[in-house]
Structure formats: structure tokens, C-alpha cells
Amino acid sequence: MATTYIYHRTFSVDDYRTSVIVGSVGGALIGGGIGIGSPAISKPIIGAGIGVISGQIGYSITSGEKYNNDEMLIATAVGGTAGALTSGFSASTTGGLLTRAAIDGVAGASQYAFTENANGRMPDAQTALQTGINSSINSLLWDGAEYTGMKIPSRVVFFEDMVENVNVSQSLKSTYTDMMKKAWMTDAFNDAFRTSISYITGNSIK
Fold it and tell me: What is the model's pTM?
């Protein structure tokens, strides 16, 4: 809704309904993942939720007046998948850093290709490759902070309140809060920027 107002585009009930559903799905994945109480199981679920919401935000901001519900759904689906997959790898190790970058690269290229197909266009191999490379570079830049041991000064009241209110042990609450401060915020920005990069590089709406 905010981007609809900012870009002065025509607001439709379908836009509103889709945005609410996508946001609800993302929120449910994050909340449900935290409530599971097992980091090993919950991390991919939380990662998927962050990817869904970040993909929605990144696409909605970047597309501006050319916003399209179908393309937004593609961005959120790719974001959710990438978020779930990258959650299994820590950016604090070289292998994890490069694996996450590879996953994000494939995600960026996939978003471009799926969007082109949805619009009845044939994806261009060179553009897909460049989109993937740009997405991987974006991943390396965001994950570089964790890899080098840099502390990320972030505090998100929404996530902290959500963690505090779930029925799990205090030690798990501390674990989730620490994960939120160190990794979840980085993932959120990485996912949002990757979605934007895929849109910009691929120029998916012509």
C-alpha cells in the first residue's frame, strides 16, 4: 500500500489482497518457525518467511509504477526458496559464504527467467548470467560482515517481541535473538536487494 501511494499508481483490490496474503504467509512462516523450538528445523522456515517478505518489499519498491502482481509473486516465491536454502549455510566460513552466494546467484537469474516467461518473452542467456553474477556479488557484500566477524548493529523490535512471546525456553529465546541480530537482518537486506537487482538488471517489465 505504501508503494502504491508513493508511486501514484492505480490501487486495486487485487493488489491489496495479494499483498496482505503474501505478508501473512511470510509472517506465519517466521512466527511458526520460531515457535517450533528447534533451531535446526526452524531456520529454513524462518529463512523462507524472511525471503518472502523481503522479496515482496524489494520488488514493490523497485517496480514502481510498473508493479505487477504476478511478477511480485514470482519474486516472493524465489525469495522464499532462496531464504530457506541459504539458511543452512553460515556466512562465517568460506564454504558457506560461497555457497550462499551461489544460491543467491541462481535465485536472481531464476527470478529474471521466470518473470520473462510469465510475460511471454524468451529469457536472454546473457542477461540471466549477468543477473546471477550481480546477485552473487550482492550476497558476498552483505555476508561479508559476518565472514569478517563484523558486528552488525541492528535491533528490530518486531522480531525481538515475537521471540519473547513464544513458548520456548529462555536459552532458545536468547539463541533466536542472537540469530536475529547477526544473521536475519543481513538476510532480509540481502534478499530485498537481490530481488531489486534481478528486476533492474533483467529489466523484466518492458
Answer: 0.75
